[in-house]
Structures are given as C-alpha cells and as structure tokens.
Give the backbone structure.
Amino acid sequence: MTLPRPLIALALTAVLAVLVSVVAGTAQTPKYGGVLVTHPLSATPSLSPHEESTVATTQQASPCFNNLVYFDPAKTQESVDTLIPELAEKWSWQDGYRNLVFFLRRDVKWHDGKPFTSDDVKYTFDMVRAAPDARARLKVNPRKLWFDNVEAIEAPDRHTVVFRLKRPQPSLLLMLASGYSAVYPAHVPLAEFKNRCVGTGPFKLKENKPGESVEYVKNPDYFVKGRPYLDGIKFVVIRDRSTQIAALQSGQLDVAGSGWNRTNAEDAKAGAAKLVMVERDSNVNDNVLINYKRPPFNDRRVRHAINLALDRQAYLIGPRQGAATFGGALLPKPAGVWGLPAAEVTKLPGMGDAAKQKAEARRLLAEAGFGPGKPLKLTVSTRQLAIYVDTASWMVDQLQQVGIEATLEQIDTGVWHPKMTRLEYQVALNLTGVGVDDADAQLFENYRCGSQRNFSGYCSEDIDRLMVEQSQTVDPKKRLALVNEIDRKLQADGARPILGWGKQYYVWWPHVKGWAVHDNSIYNVGRRQDVWLDK
Amino acid sequence: MRTYVVKRLLIAVLTLVGMSVVIFTLLRLAPGNITDIIFESAGYVEEGDRKRLEIELGIDRPVVVQYARWMGDLVRGELGKSYRYDLPAWAIIKPRLPVTLELAVLALGFSVLMGVPSGVMSAVRRGRPSDYVLRVLSLAGLSMPSFWLAMIVILVLVRSLGWIPSMTYVSPFENLGANLAQFVVPALAVGYRSSALIMRITRSAMLEVLREDYIRTAWAKGQRERLVVWRHALKNASLPVITLIGIEFAFLIGGLIVTETVFNLPGVARYLVDAIQWRDYPIVQNLTMLIATVVVLANLTVDLLYTWLDPRIKYGQA
Amino acid sequence: MATTPEALTLGLPHAAADGRPWWATLGRFVRKNPLGAAGAVLMLALIVLAVLAEPLATHNPVRTSNRVLVAPGAEFWLGTDNLGRDLWSRVVHGSRISLLVGLVSTLLGAVAGGMIGLLSGYVGGKTDLVSQRAMDIMQALPILVLALVMAAALGPSLTNTIIAISVVIAPRAARVVRASVLAIREFAYVESARALGVGHVRVAFRHILPNTFGPFIVLVTAQLGGAILTEAALSFLGLGIPEPYPSWGRMLSIAAAEYAQKAPWLVIYPGVAISLAVFGTNLLGDALRDTLDPRLRGS
C-alpha cells in the first residue's frame, strides 16, 4: 500500500526541515568578547596610512579607519566583484566611467563623536591628490599617482561625493578600496595621525607605544550593528622570528605569520599540531632592476642573458624555501586577476631548463662581446637587510655561473631609493609590493616613463600608450587582453625581470575565527571587524 | 685633595664636550638623514617634498648652527624630539631606561657574586687543578661573544624547557616574579663576561696580598685561615675591583646592546641601534651623551673613591 | 716601581742569556705555561685554517645550491645554510676574514696609537695634554657604540670595519706606550745619549721604542681577541663585513633571526669558531704577558 501523496510531501518537508535546522544549528554563531593578540610585520613609523608604504602600517591602522568601499574579507580573491560598501552605501559610475558618485551613510560618527560627512571625503582625497586648494598637505605622499586622473572632487550635499575624472578609469574604485585609502576627518589636524588615530572604524585606539605595541578597544558606536565581535586587538612588535613562533606556540599570540616564509610556518605548526596554517599568494614580488641607461645594459642581449642566468627553479628552492609563484609583471592566475596564463608563464626567461638557459646566456654574452677573456663585470646592489642580502647573494652566484664577474654591494637603507631614482647602480635586487592587485596601480607606478618608482629607467612610448588605453577600457575581457599584451612585451624586453611572487603565511589557534587572508594582496584585510574568538 | 677633585671634574666636562663633537660629526658623516629614511620607508623620492621636510626639521641649517642648537638645548635640559616618531626624546627614552638599568645592575651584581669568590678561590688554590679550571672558565667567558652565549642559552632553554623570551616587558613593581624570570637569564649572560674580568683581577690582587708580611703575621698569630683570607685580603683587593667596575661600565653597554636585541627587551641600548639606522639624530646624540656621561661619572667616582680609600696612591703623574 | 731596561727587553727564547738552544727554552715555556702553549696551538690552528682555506674547505663557500638546511653529515660536515651553502667551508673561509680583520685592525690601531703615545710621552707638555684628552674622549665611549656610529657613518664594508675597530683600539695602545715611554725616558742611558748629541728622533726610535715592545706585544694580543669580538658584534648587528665575505659574526645574525630552532648547527658552529679563536688569543696573550712583562704577572 502506498502512502497518499500529500502525506509523502509532508514527510519530505518535515525531513527537510529537520535537516536544515540541524545544519543551521551546527553553523557557528560568533561569540562576543576577548582581546586578540598578534604581531605586526614590524613597528610602524606612524599610524597614518596615507603617509606610509608598508604593510606594517595598514595592519596596525586599518582597525581604526574605514574606506568608502572595501574588499569583502570573506572572499579570498580581491576584485571589482568583491567590493562591499563601507562609508558609501551605494555608488555608481556615470558618463562612461568618467564620474564616480558615492552615496554615503548617514549614521556614521567619528571616534570623537563628530558626524561623518562628504566634506571629510573631499578633504582626504584632495589632500592625497595634492589638489591646489587642498586644506592639508601630506609631507610624504606615496600614492599621489593613484589619483592623477582626478580632475575634481565635489560634495554637492552632506552625503554625496562625486569624483570627476579627466578620462574613464574603472580602476579608481579599486584604488579607493585599498587599505591605504582610509578616510580622514577634516576636523583633526594631520599631525595628530602620526601617533594617534581618530577614525570611524570598528576599533578605537587605546594605547600606542611607538616601536613596541599598538592596542585597540572596541568601538561601541560602530555603524555596522553587531560588529566588531572582539573587545579589542593588540599588536605587539616582536623583532625575532623564532620568538614570534615560540610566542604563538605558547599561546601568548593568537595569530602570527606576518612576514613568515614557509619554513617558519611549518616550524610553528610542527610545535603545536592544533594550529591552523594558511598559505596564500601575495602581490609582493622580487624583481631585478637593470639600469637601462648605462652601457652595456642598454644592449638587449646583455639584459636577456642576465634574465636567463637566473634560474627560477633554484630561486624557488633556495631564497624562497619552496614557496613562490612564477609570473610576469602582474600577479599570475589563479590568485591574481590580471596575470598571464600559466602556459605562457612556463616559457618566460629563466623558467626553462637551467643548463640550456645558462648556455644560451653565455652565447648571448659572447655575441655582445663578452667572454672568458673579457668577462662582464657588474655589481648587484641591494638593501642592507637580511632577506635581500640572501637573495642577492644567490643572484651573484647565478651570474658567476655564466661567467659574469658579479659582486654584491649593500646599500644603506637611507640612500637606497635616492640611488635607485638617480640610476646610480648597474643591477639591483628589488622588492615591490603594490597596494592593490590592479593593472593601473602596477603598471603606472613601475613601468611608465618617468614614474618615480620606475627605477630601471625603462621607457617605451608604445607601452605607455597601451597603458593609458587599458586604463580607459571598460570591458573586462578586452582590458585583460590589453594588459596581457603589455605584460608580454615587458617580459620580452626584460623591462624588470620578475624572479617570483612571494607567498604569505598565517598561523593561528583554532579558537580564532574569521581571520581573513587574501590571495592577491596583503594590504586590504586589516579591518578585522569579523574576527571572533571561540572561547 | 679639593683641587684634585675640581681638576678631575673639569676634565670630565671637557671630555664630555669633546665627545659631543665626535658623535655629532660622525653621525653627520653617515650617508642620508632622516628625510631620506622617511622617504625610503614611503618607497619613493620626491626631492621638493624632501627638502621641505629638511627645513622643517632644521637639518638644512649649517652644521655648526645645528651643533650650537643641540648644545644649547642640552644645557637647558631639553632633549629635543625624535625625528622618527615625532615625540619628545625623553618620552621615548624614559620608559626604556628602567629596563636597561635593571639589566645592568643585575648583570654587575651577578658578575661580582660570581667573580669575586671564584677569584679568591683560584688564588688560594693556586697551581692546583681547580685553579686551572676556574681560569679556563673565566677566560671562556671573555672569549665568547655575549650575543652568541645568549643565543645558545635561549636555544637550550627552548629545547629543554620550552621557555621563550618574553614578548612584553613586565615591570618589577607590577609582578616581581615575572620580571625576574625575564631578566635573570639575560643578566647572567651579560654578567658572565664581566665576572671573568673581575675574577682575574681579584685573583691577581689576592695573590699580591697573600704574599704580604702582615698576612703572614696574622697567619702566624693563629687566626682561622678563612677569616684571614677573607677579611684582610678582600679589603685590599676591593680597590682594583672597584676600578674595574668603573671601567667595565663601558664594556657592559656593548653587551647590553646585543643582549637586549637577542632577548627582546625594550631597553635604551637596543633602541640606540634602531635610532642609528634611522638617523634619528636627537635620539642618538642624546642617548650617546647619556651613556658617555654615565661612563665618565662612573670613572670619576671610581677615581675619587680610589684616592679616598688609599691615600698612599698619588695622582698627577703618569 | 721603575724596572730596569733588561727586564723590559724581549724575552724571546732565542735571546735567552743562558745560551741554551731555542727549543730547550721553548720546552721550558710550554712546561711553565701549559695554558699559554694551548693558546699558541689554537692560534696556530687558526692561522693554518686561514692560510689553507682552499684545500681545507670541501665546497665553494659562496656557491648556493638546492640542498638547503641540511643537517651535518658526511657530505656537508657542518651542514648547510638556508641558501644551500656548506657551513664548514664558510667557517673555514671565515677564519681568513676574522684573522685578517682582527690582525690588521689591531696592528693598525696599535701602531697608530703607539705613535701617538710615543710622541705624547716623549715630547710631553702641551702635546701630551691635548692628545691625552683626545684619547680619553675616545675611550669614554663604549667600544661597541663608537664602532656602531662609525660603521653607520662609513657604511658596511671590509675596509670601514677595519678602520672602525682600529680607531677604537688606538687610544688603548696610546696609553700603554705612553706609560712605557714615560718610564724609560728617565733612564740614565737615554740622558747620556742626549748628552752625546744624539737627535731626538733617533733617541725616540732607536732607544726608547724597542723597549716598549714588551708591553706593546702584550697589548696587541690582548686587543686581538677584542677586535675579533667587536667585528662579530658589528656583523651581527648588520653593520660589519658585508656579503659575500663569509664573516662568522654575520653567519650568526641571519641564523639567529630565522633558523635557530630548525637548524641549530647554524648557530652553534660559527660561535664556537669565534670563541675558540678569541680563547686562543687570550691564552697566548696571558702567557706572553707573564713572560714579557713581569710587573703584571700574577693574573
């Protein structure tokens, strides 16, 4: 005898309901309370993101601020599709991506109680783009370039802001979502932000001991109801890696890993099996600067020989301890949005058979007039920090293996950038991290003719033209094609050989939930309003 | 005696002034200044902005003017502002001083506690195996780089006891137990080296004294050997030891610098290294002058103590 | 407390007054100073290591490889570092650097300081006063601090490290030589030489200077250990000898920061090398001092 249909339907529904409730019940509800303790990459020179260029600052300042828009912490790959509203409730492109309008929230207050308005946004970004009528001036302004294309910023009413651009630029939205693009209050003098913080963010600054620790306490008036979960966050500066690892293992730290390599992460996990380890890509790469303007490096054969001599596999095993991703000028897929396809990456110089490539390098050098009787002599310059020196020593050895008489020069930190900017070097090992995985940011900063950070002196009108073209291209597929074309040309030219893109590691105790780590950036996850402790 | 004291004081002041010139000049010989470092940290160089920053910090003025300004400030007790953190130098140095002081005092204490008895024992048992053992041990202390000793100690402690250097400094007033746990090992590491020197000096002084007639007389009088050795000999050996402690101050600072780095203690010594790398002139200059003043004062005190304790010693000659 | 010139002359074995062959005197030295002999052996071993670095090393000390962080074993006697470089070879070649830096900076500082001390002690008067104060100033600063600031000022390089350390040693040398000179200056034979019309320079160099050799050699051996340690500390702090020279001190700094727990051999062996080298110089220095400068005997 079969059951009547309605009864079967009812039974199925009941079963479904039970299943759903069981699943829902096991999904965890975040708990409130607790202070999370972690270590930053290093001490931050100041708490002002607009005036610094190190992740140490975004780590330790982001809990205090908000952006107009931000990248969703829960999505590992950052892109235009993962943007979420923060200070802006809604936004819209108008006039063919020439005007960007933000509709701001009305219920936001600064930590000192004053209301947040569109004037604060105008103040902040007029300052960053160094507008002639800006009310404040940044003494040090690393990202002025990002807002080069902004013609004017208007605040038609207290809750609307309009960015008027000179030409279309879809990337602007992403640059505003970077951890560096915090919104400052117009009513607080800029000098205050060196050691204090007045923001709108989920945490208020409790105590700042410069060089030692930064401590935050929950902001009870945060505009996102029910956030943050934590009562506070504390960043403790620990200089020594082994101490960081030991502190994590002993429970003095909840989360650790900023600046770690694979060995460190594995060591940490080996000491305490319960620890959760996460490995992600990052948009930080080791690259080689070759001085274009100085003979013989203006000879393409010499540049290519140098590129070929650096065996990327050896780079992976030695300096990188087995953890790096290979790619071109932009972060490769699948972690990055704009990188070259994997098939092309395997054919880049330095990626193939080491012996063959080194032989080819020798041949090129011979063609250019160098050989055993007349070896190419060069100096590899690098910054005077252990990680750079290690990789540079490796480089020197690789070059020596193709008959180049390479020596190492350590340059004092204070004069590194001036020397690079003045092109007072031959070959240099460099590290580049760009605030956001975006073609505009990457390309304009590092490859455009005359850009401040174009340390190799590379200049190609053709590439410049293509760069501007891709910046205005709205269709994502077309834009990707253009970006890849640029990348291909840059690699063929040996514009700035990329050794590899580093990986990032985080290790935490299982009671830590919601600690976001993104695949294509290290700078844009610092808000930490979704982190909670299961204790 | 009074003229001697005054003369020594004057010399001390002169020495300090001379040192200030040396430090000042050396610092400015170093390539780059704070503006370069600030821009370095920002990842780019904008010459116009940088010059503006220089003017604001007063580094663009001629060197002599800068020196005069510094001296003027110092005399008024003004320690200036840290270029890096934009906070008063004193605010940065003050919380770090107790850490270094505690470490230094504990280290010196350990060095005396370890050095003097072993020096005495070595002298008394001269020529016997225990003498050689003690001498080798003390020489080992002088031969090991103090930072290496610290590293090995940490390695052993971590491996065998699962101990780690503490992350944050705990003041003795907050929690004496935790504080001592933090400081005992580094103090021993630094003190070991100084104890070696003290041991050698004590041993040599003891040997000299043990040859003295009046010691032999006391011996003949039948006093218990130990009392003879300890009371008479120690009193006379104390002079060179005190002198050594004065001199040791200077060596100690070096040991403190590396030990604070390895043990992650937030003291002034470690901060000095940072400040040098950041070309934070006010901090480096004032910290170094502070250290120099301490050293000069220590030497002065020791010299005066010396004269006062042993009127037989005349000064003013070679 | 003035000692006679004879007591200050070099007590080298072959100059013994009793006419015995040099090896007998050497044997006596060894028996009387077993520790000193041990020190001499250590120093000799260090020199041999430095001179014969190429044949003694098993691999190229700067050649990187894919064999990273390998534990000590048959192939790599002391293991490898994080770039796959053989530690034994690096330690062996590092001896060259340490010895070079130690010796050159000590000699440079001692000679420079010695000249100043000689001048200061012999001429006396204002020159003496001024140079005394200058030396005091240099000495009032702790060695490491002065070396740090100098290294920062000059930049990290082999030459600059040597200069920084010698600047630190010079005042101490000046003080020792000056003391000797002041003692000797009063001797009758010096006065008679002057009375005979011998020029100042000749008196200074031919009569006074040789008699300061005893304390001078003691000073050099005493400072040599200190020089090696200061170089190690400077390199540890990042301001000493840069790559690619394998400096023992720098091997410790990188190892300490990164791999101490995972690869303890990186921390142990370079430190042992430094300690043994300095230990040797100290032992030898002590023994030499006992023999050459009886006034300081007894330590």
About this structure: Chain A touches chain B at residues 45-46, 51-54, 139-142, 191, 194-195, 209-213, 236, 238-240, 242-243, 246-247, 250, 252-253, 412-418, 421, 452-453 (CB under 8 Å). The mean pLDDT of chain A is 90. The first strand of chain A starts at residue 35 and ends at 38.
